[in-house]
Amino acid sequence: MEQIFSRWVTSTALFRADAEALVGFVLAVAVTVHALLRKRRVSVAVGWIGLAWLSPILGSALYLLLGINRVYRRARKMRGRPSEATPPADDDDAVVPETLWPLDRAIRRITATPALVGNRVRLYRNGDEAYPDMLAAIRGARLSVALSSYIFRDDEAGHEFCDTLAEAKRRGVEVRVIIDGIGGGYFRTPAYRRLTAAGVPAALFMHSALPWRMPFLNLRNHKKLLIIDGQVGFTGGLNIASANRVASNPPHPIRDTHFRFEGPVVDQLATTFAADWFFANGENLDGPPWFTNPEPVGATVARAVTSGPDADVQKIEQVVIQALNCARRSVRIATPYFLPDELVTGALTQAATRGVSVEVVIPAKGDHRFIDWAMRAHLDPLIRAGVQIYLDTPPFDHTKAMVIDDIWCFVGSANWDMRSFRLNFELNVEVIDADVAAEIDALIRRKMERRLTATDLAARYLPVRLRDAGVRLLLPYL
To answer: How many CB atoms lie within 10 A of CB 390?
Structure first.
């Protein structure tokens, strides 16, 4: 009897091993086929295929969670994507200076969106300057308020925004609010609950406990938008949190830069919000009170550029590369997270090699230790190619801005990393105005507090360099 039982156990174990091997083989083949057909970057495809064959069960599970872009499939079914909202402009109606015609032609082909003249721009530093004007604009709204924020804290600043939005709703203004499903607090979303309890229509972007929707690990709506009556738009890097009120000395202050836009470009901002609201809620915002044909009010040329893992994939990255390739004299960049891929790194080094002054400002101490480590491992080739890296001392600055040749600016929500360029839903605005460029350029220059050299990087202890290089391998997900 014991021999029969032993043979049964052995045969069961062998059968189980054979079944597991067969399942692993099928999963690895499935990942291989999908990666070969869907992954455009060779390194990404090789990485996923290698992981699937080395660890079929774990590798396939990770690929299911992180490797498949379901948003694009969903986006194809949607109407009103930002990239499709405006028909491509003709090449003979450029409103930019002649020196920028090649760049304008490239960007309009990338975005299918024209640059628009007749705008006015105002720059704000921190929530101390921006929040009062944003709240005043909401209080003065007559038709509509559209607000989107990656982070919306349930703190003093968040309460003030919630109360002001609720009051606008009570007096008959149409209000819509989007909060990112991760940035707003995945398990607890108190600001969202506070708004909905007050009767304010709000939506959590990509928020679901279902693993095949991937909200927990991957895609985020990183945009910061406030649009009033379809006439005034606020956007930039500023979230809604008391930490952004730097003058009040919060425990962990966050400096940032935000912008107010008036003029025709606000219609492009409203189109962006409408597409995101349709994605998150299913309601189609069309016509008044959301789109009210803003009249020209200034001389600034501007264009909204959206990017995300849907129809707009990598568009902000493509615009950045084109701008770097067209730079003639100077490039100045400020970003809290600087982890560009080989394409952007190559464009930066090529610009520096042909004699363009390329200066990048990053935080001396960021708000995520792992990103600081990865950034240090990323800088040596750039420095050796002539790119100048400067460190901005604390408190942490969340500003994202780029100025080229003292006239062309690129501002908004996108960081210089692969998460912003490829995974997040982002919004930047191209601004062409020498006065605005001078203001942003002066801001970046004030942040250039200490230059980082190749000697500084080489002086790190070997364990530190190994740690930084190891963390850098996680670059696509940082």
So the answer is: 20
